[in-house]
Amino acid sequence: MKNRYTPIEVITAKIISKVEERKASLRSVMEEYFIANPQESVVRGVVRAYAISVFKKYRLIDTIIKDILNIDPYKLDIFEKNLLRSLVYEIKFRKINNKKILKIGKRLKSIQLSKKDINSIRNLSVKEILSNYRGIERIGIEYSLPDWIVEYLINLLGKPEAFKLFKKFNKKQDIWIRTNTMLIKPSQLLKRLKKKGVILEKDNLFHETFRVIESKRNLTHLEEYKRGLFYIQDKSSLLTGHAINAKTWDYVWDMCSAPGGKSSHLYQIFKGKINIIATDWKIQRIKTMKNILERLRINNIPLIVTNSVFPPFNRIFDKIIIDPDCSSLGRLGQSPEIRLWLTRDMILDFQKQQRKLIEISTDYLKKNGTLVYSTCTLTLEENEENVIWALNNFPFILEPVDIEFGLKGLKGLNYTRRLYPHIHSTTGFFIAKLRYQ
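The structure corresponding to this sequence follows.
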C-alpha cells in the first residue's frame, strides 16, 4: 500500500524553503502550510522544532555540504538545498538510520547521497569541520551566524560577552507568560497550570509574570490559554506598559501595535480605564491582533489598518508607543530564520523608517506627553543613535525608565535600558522614554 504521509524531512524542507524564499517568519509560513494541509497537522510541533534546529545550524550544515559533499548548496534548487540541509542535520546531529536517509535522499534530483557520504558526515567531528577556517568566519560557522553579525556584536560587547550571547542564541530560549489579571489572579493561574504539568517560576519584578520552567504540553493547547487566562509574552516587552506611566482615561496611540502584547498589557494594567488606539500597516497583523484581543476578552481597543506615517487622526495623544519593525538581532534565538537573509545594509533602512515614525509622533503628541520607544534589536543605529537624533532634532527630554531592569544604555544614555538574552533570560531589547516639551 502506498504511503500517504509526507516524510517530516520533506515537510520541513518545504516550509524552510518558503521561509527563505519569502523572507517570512517560520510561524506565518507554518500556519499557512498546515491550513492547506490539515491532515499533516499531527506533526506540527515536531516540524517546528526540526526547522528551528536546522536554522540554528544552517552555516555549519552548509559548510559540511560544501566541504564533505563538494556541493555548493546555493547552486541548488531551493527545495533541494533545504531537503539536503535537513538530511545533513539528521545525519550529523540525530541518530537516524542510513536506510531512511537514503530513501528520502532519492527525492534529490541532482544529488546522489551514498552510504559513504553519510558515514563521512557522521564520523567527522565539528572541530575537524572548523579546523579549515579562522577568525570571524570560523565563529560565524560555529554559531551559524552571518559574519557581519559576529563582527558587529563583538565590537559592541567585546569577545567574552559576545561569545556568551552567541551560545545563548543557540540554546533553548526562555518562555514567559503574562497572567491576564482581569480574568484570574496569578496565584490561581499558577495552581491551575501546575495541575496540567506546567512548572512555572514566579518573576520577582512583575507580579503578573511567570517563566516557564517545564511544560508537558504545548501551552497554546491548554484550556487556560484558549480562555485567555494568560498570554505568551517575553518579559522584556512588559517594560513598555510599566514605563508609559499613563493616567486613567489618557489617550494612548500604539503606533506599531501587532500582535497586541503591549496594548493588551497596558489595558490590563488600567483595567480597561484607558483609551488605547492601535494601528499597524498590515491587515494580516491586525487580524491576528483582533483574534488575540478577543481571546483575552478585550473588545474595546480600536484596531486600524494604516501606514502610521499617514495616520487618520485629527487629535493629539497623551502617550505614544513606538515599537517599530527592526533588524531583530535580539531575537536570533527565538526567530533563527532571520539569519538566512538579514544583511548589514538593512540596519540603515530600518533606521530611516524608525526615524520617520519618531518624527510623525511629534505631530500627535501633546505638550509634556510621553513617547516610549523600544525595539527587539541590539544595534546602536536603531537604538541609542535614534534617541540622540530625536533629542537633537525635536524638543524631547530623555527621562528614566521607571523600572530598574536591564543595563544602562550605551553612548552615555544612562536613562535608557538594554536587555540581553544571556544576562536577563529575555529577548534582546532596548527601551527609551522621552517627554515632549
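The chain has a mean pLDDT of 96.
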